[in-house]
Amino acid sequence: MTGNDNLPLCSSYRHEQLQLDFKVGNDFYHDRYTDASAGWVLAASILIFFMKAGFLFVEDAFVSEPSERRRVIISKYLDTCASAIAFWLFGFAVSLGLQPAVLGEDRDYILWFFRFTFSSNTATIIGGTLIGEKRKMKLVAVFLYAFLISSVVHPYVSQQLWSDVGVFSPFKFCNGTVDTVNGKLTIQYTSNHSPSSLFVLDFAGSGAVHLLGGMGGLLLTVCLKIEQKLKDHHKVGRQPQEEMQNSTSMTAKSDDNVPVDVGEQPQQPKNFWKWMYHLGPEHIEYAALGVLILWTTWFAFNCGSTESISGGRNDDPHAFKIYHAIAGRIALNMVVCAGSGGLMAIIVAGFVQLITDADSINTNEIANGILSCLVAITGCCAFVTPWVSFAIGLVAVWFYHLGCYIEYKLDLKDTARVVPVHAWSGMLGLLAGAFAEKSYLLEVYENVCSCQELNLSNMEFNIGVSLAHQLLGALFIIAWS
């Protein structure tokens, strides 16, 4: 490692050092990691990038035509490449809050790669919305939305939630007085914030990744719905009245001599459960493989968000020396949450099979229930107890069903259930941050950040106030998307 070897394990110090380097013309490489932590974050980043394969298999399960399957693959290639260039040119600098934004900022290589995987996966989430529908998103549009999300949309949310200059970020309390002597940066920390100051907890991205990506999918489905309504209205307005009557009154006789209307477009089932749990022609083995890939790589997504496995440098007296315990707690909470929610999803799917007299259980909805649990635990996985994780899993499955019911009532086209899985469960993940354990927050923020400005040890936690803060953060993401 070169450059300043005394960087503490603190977000604000890294930001201020990069800002100073930009002003004085320094261009050396530096990061904040020990060798062990650098390996940990790099390995996690590689696995997070492999989540692309999981999304690809899940989306490919809903199409059967070779041309459609090729389109899914091309879209995945395109959004990945567009995200890479966009994040390199603009996104990383925006996520750090550098002023002015530095074109092609990359002086913290490992952090750059880690943050890129988050930004790229945010863009990938939207891809499952219109899979198998007659209306397709043009490849130019795929490029544009991926580039926009990775250059500005996700990085700005990341800045507000995770950088030391963000309005909603806990790390903003680490700011202090900056002194520069001969180009060397030092920070004298001072307590300028009251314990009641606003901050939002989103440890690994329930909001910054999943709620944001899910809202992008919702925007796409709503635009498609509006377009279809306008086309239908235009068609009806031009069609002669008598032709309308003829086209809508055409009937035929069924085998039971019952008149059957053959002039109207097929309508969705009147029973919500039959609509949601219908057994379609999907390749269920592809969907199952995709979900298992996502489930496995999700551990890297959340555990790797500790950005450390060995604590700070040996010369840092404030570093939390058993930081690997936090990664262990994250894994435990993920297993418990997905386990409880997965069992709930299996029970619901079995019950629906009985009441609808279906041939078999819909395994895709079980898979989506598990994914919803993983989305919901992502934002609070480092802060909550296993019992809270157990409850989050149970609630997440019903949040997912609520999202599906709303899509059913509004007749929105969302093939892979992107909005219920990511947007609704992402919202739950943010709200669940209000039930964080105070001692866990101390471990994650105060002890690791090498400064005491968050003042958590003296803060009286009020679930109502925390819930309001978390809801405000969710509304900010929804409005920005």
Short description:
This protein is about 60% helix and about 5% strand. It has helices at about 10-25, 35-50, 50-60, 65-95, 110-125, 140-160, 205-240, 240-250, 270-275, 285-305, 325-355, 365-380, 385-410, 420-430, 440-450, 465-480; strands at about 175-180, 185-190, 250-255, 260.
Write up this protein.
By secondary structure, this protein is mainly alpha-helical. The protein contains 16 helices and 4 strands. A two-stranded antiparallel sheet has the order 1-2.
Note the main attributes of this structure.
single chain; 481 residues; mainly alpha; two-stranded antiparallel sheet; 16 helices; 62% helix; 3% strand
Structural class: mainly alpha
Global geometry: globular
Biggest sheet, spatial arrangement of strands: 1-2
Arithmetic mean pLDDT? 80
Could you name the ranges where pLDDT drops below 50 across 5 or more consecutive residues?
A: 1-16, 176-196, 246-265, 313-321
What is the tally of beta strands? 4
- What is the string of helix and strand elements? HHHHHHEEHHEEHHHHHHHH
Distance between the termini: 38 Å
How much of the residues is beta strand, in percent? under 5%
Count of alpha/pi helices: 16
Major beta sheet, specifics?
Answer: 2 strands, antiparallel
The percentage helix is 55-70%
- Rg from Cα: 25 Å
